[in-house]
Amino acid sequence: MDFWKKFAISSDERLASACLRVFPESSTLLIFVFHSLFESAQEAALHWMDPQQAITTGMFRDLVANLREHGYRFVSPDEIVAGLDPAGSYAMITFDDGYANNRRALPTLEEFHAPAVFCISTSHVQTEKPFWWDVLYREARKRGWPDDKLAQTRTSFKRLRTCDIEKQVMAEFGSTALQTLSDLDRPFTAAELARFAGHPLVHIGNHTCDHAILTNYPPAEARRQIESAQEALATITGRMPAVLAYPNGDVSRPALEAARAAGIKLGVTVRPGRNTIPSTRSWPRALQLKRYTLWGTRDISLQCRMARSPLSLRAAWAAIRSKVTFTA
């Protein structure tokens, strides 16, 4: 973590409580992104897969309970598209990738009657292949790679198309490395996803066909990644998704145009920040919504308080470092 990011986070921790006593939280939509859910910290540390945020089911429940306690109502994408009352405070839960372990979210969603969006990379579901970052993490740990080598390799892979990443993974670790180990690291099967999508609190979103970082693809290929996932998800679940989560949060003007043409109503990045209610309905802002990423290594209630705060140096810093913000 670089100096400015550390400084922004520590400053936000101090600012949050003071800001929340002064500024209202109305006309706000907070969106949170998750990937895997672990039963415990010990499970996250097994090195079977990249722990990413290392969020446990208990931490996930703490988030939902905390926001509900502070007056936030959890909403579905359909409610956002239809229009939210500007007087309210809202939150939306999103999961990216399509891990089968996401079913662990259901007890908390049912307890609080909170809808959630699960954004799926469809080729992983259709072929039941693993996610390349999990294979990289697992194999690197087996070989005792230092953290900086793993981080550098992951960063370099994110500049490539997914098919090229997978070729490099197999060249480095062997063709048999590209496989899942257990129910923990595997994606949904198509049959499981179809059943899961039938739950009344579950909404399915698009995460491209191949978990494609769209800025690495020519516009025509980026469009095919979105459209193919739309078609596959409609076939599996019986409903066309209204939400697109951009892999790695990277978005370009061609990607925005392709998403709009494919019928996408809401697009979510990984840039932190609060969304104002008007921005959820205006083009192209509705396709560039901000999301907070929570970390299992830090206090969940404090992270919730920072997300609720109207002033955030981290969000401002992310906006400055953002490659581009597209306007009408």
Give the helices and strands, then pairings.
Blueprint: H1 3-22, E1 28-34, H2 41-44, H3 57-69, E2 73-74, H4 77-82, E3 89-97, H5 106-112, E4 116-120, H6 122-127, H7 132-142, H8 147-157, H9 162-173, H10 190-197, E5 202-206, H11 219-237, E6 243-245, H12 253-261, E7 266-268, E8 275-276, E9 292-293, H13 300-308, H14 313-321
Parallel strand pairs: 1-3, 1-9, 2-3, 3-4, 4-5, 6-7
Antiparallel strand pairs: 1-8
In the CATH scheme, the class would be Alpha Beta
* CATH level-4 homologous superfamily: Glycoside hydrolase/deacetylase
User: What would the principal axes of the Cα set say about the shape?
Assistant: globular
Helix content: 40-55%
The CATH architecture can be given as: Alpha-Beta Barrel
Low-confidence stretches: none
Quick description:
This protein has one domain: Alpha-Beta Barrel (TIM Barrel).
Explain this structure to me?
Strands 1, 2, 3, 4, 5, 8 and 9 form a seven-stranded mixed β-sheet that branches. The protein is built from 14 helices and nine strands. The longest helix is centred in the first third of the chain and has 20 residues. It has a single domain, classed as Glycoside hydrolase/deacetylase (TIM Barrel). The radius of gyration is 19 Å and the shape is globular. The mean pLDDT is 92. It is α/β, with parallel strands linked by helices and 328 residues long.
